[in-house]
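Query structure, 271 tokens:
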């Protein structure tokens, strides 16, 4: 038997034991979302005092998660949790702008309840915005676990390091990828299959801006791919479906792809 091999496995098991399960971490975030949006029907409170108590419990739960995470043990976790929860009212306000963007931007959306309960884009944004706030506070591991949970549930992959403004609209959402150093302004709309990615995945670029900047009031339609850290999409531009873009465009631009489609008439096969 190769003893060194088993020691390697043991080391991994010990390290794994120092991080709470993804279910615990994502469950904590989902509970926070439910506190803000009871429309999800996972929790219900009948008084302000009950809500305040639950708010304090969630803060305590975050401290416990941080204390149980090996990479966080040298930090002042109580202070980190306190700073995070001081930001929750701002987070809630921003998420409300996302709801408004979805409700007013999608003719299929009838009421806020529908957006909160049924829209995968909103679910993904809840987890992204929580993860991003944690990342700002230099919390390791948890932000990526949270956004990957949302990715697994919705098919929407938003790195917690991306910077996204308010009134962010994601319609359908499946297949959207937003990279770590992407910057997105306010009132931006993305449709399914959009990629804001890097031109290169060379590991030496780890601390380099690799992903595009999208300014305010931009619409990017389904299947568009925009790559590169120096690529800037100017405000009030529209990017058509299936566009492949690796260079900047000025404000107010319209970029579209012209496919060649052939229709042969009179060739219908009767089965």
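Result returned for the query:
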């Amino acid at each position: 038997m190769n003893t060194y091999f088993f020691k390697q496995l043991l080391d991994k098991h010990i390290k794994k034991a120092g991080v709470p399960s993804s279910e615990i971490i994502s469950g904590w975030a989902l509970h926070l979302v439910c506190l803000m949006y009871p429309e999800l029907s996972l929790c219900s409170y009948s008084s302000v005092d009950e809500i305040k108590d639950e708010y304090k419990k969630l803060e305590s739960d975050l401290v416990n998660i941080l204390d149980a995470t090996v990479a966080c043990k040298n930090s002042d976790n109580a202070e980190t949790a306190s700073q995070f929860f001081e930001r929750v009212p701002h987070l809630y306000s921003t998420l409300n702008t996302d709801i408004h963007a979805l409700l007013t931007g999608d003719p299929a959306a009838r009421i806020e309840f529908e957006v909160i309960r049924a829209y995968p884009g909103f679910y993904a944004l809840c987890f992204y915005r929580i993860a991003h706030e944690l990342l700002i506070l230099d919390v390791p591991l948890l932000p990526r676990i949270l956004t990957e949970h949302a990715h697994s549930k919705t098919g929407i992959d938003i790195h917690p390091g991306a910077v996204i403004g308010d009134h962010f609209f994601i319609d359908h959402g499946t297949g959207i990828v937003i990279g770590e150093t992407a910057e997105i302004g306010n009132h931006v709309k993305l449709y399914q299959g959009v990629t804001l990615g890097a031109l290169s995945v060379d590991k030496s670029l780890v601390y380099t801006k690799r992903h595009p900047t999208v300014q305010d009031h931009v619409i990017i339609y389904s299947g568009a791919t925009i790559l590169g850290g120096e690529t800037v999409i100017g405000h009030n531009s529209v990017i058509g479906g299936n566009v492949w873009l690796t260079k900047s465009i000025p404000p107010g631009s319209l970029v579209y792809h012209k496919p060649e489609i052939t229709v042969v008439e009179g060739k219908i096969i009767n089965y």
